[in-house]
Design brief:
- By secondary structure, this protein is of the alpha+beta class.
- It folds into 2 domains: 40 residues; 145 residues, no CATH class.
- It is built from 1 helix and 10 strands, in the order αββββββββββ.
- It has a 6-stranded antiparallel beta sheet, with no helix packed on it.
- It starts with a helix and ends with a strand.
- About 11% of the residues have low confidence.
- It holds the Pfam family DUF2911.
């Protein structure tokens, strides 16, 4: 009988120790999870968010896709973006424009399709280029021979600063519209019609 009591006491002691060990592991796991949750850092703000501008004009869908950098206290044109150099008219990858209908821009036909949108900023008139090569990083693969349309525009200068680069496609009549790009103190725009 004494042996039976000793075996019962030993068995209960072992079970009690196992239960305490399991609770310790469970508590450590809960603490570990809580610590990880507390250490998560907020997501970093994207400095040049990917965005787009689009419009339906008659049965034409015009879509502009770009990354939108901010001024952030910098001199943009003649500084960050040098004068008289090709610029991808946005950040990161080349800005592109897509249309499901032929457009007439500056008296020339832009066939329906997808195109790179580039500019050459200057102190005077800017050059706008709509180029066959839309899928490229920046202006790395830009070649003038791939321009489908190339024309000059006179920029509008504002006293107010447009912090983020912004494109707009605006309907001006049943079959025409206006494309604009606005950043820092500069705005360029040009009309188009549906062919």
């Amino acid at each position: 009988m004494k042996n039976l009591i000793v075996v019962l006491v030993v068995t209960l002691s072992v079970l009690s120790c196992k239960n305490e060990a399991k609770q310790t592991v469970d508590n450590e796991h809960e603490n570990h999870v809580t610590t990880l949750e507390k250490e998560e850092t907020p997501k970093k703000k994207i400095l040049s968010p990917h965005t787009s501008a689009m419009a339906m004009i008659d049965d034409a869908h015009i879509h502009i896709d770009y990354s939108s950098p901010g001024v952030r206290g910098r001199i943009i044109f003649g500084g960050l973006v040098g004068y008289d150099n090709v610029w991808q008219a946005g950040a990161h990858n080349a800005t592109w424009i897509e249309t499901n209908k032929d457009l007439v821009i500056n008296g020339e036909v832009l066939p329906k399709g997808k195109y790179g949108f580039f500019t050459i900023p200057s102190k005077g008139d800017w050059t706008v280029m709509i180029n066959k090569n839309w899928d490229q990083h920046g202006k790395d693969e830009y070649e003038e021979k791939d321009d489908v349309i190339r024309f000059k525009v006179t920029p509008k200068i504002s006293e107010d600063i447009q912090e983020q680069l912004e494109y707009k496609v605006v309907k001006t009549s049943e079959n025409s519209g206006l494309i604009s790009m606005n950043w820092e103190k500069i705005k360029i725009e040009f009309p188009f019609t549906i062919n």
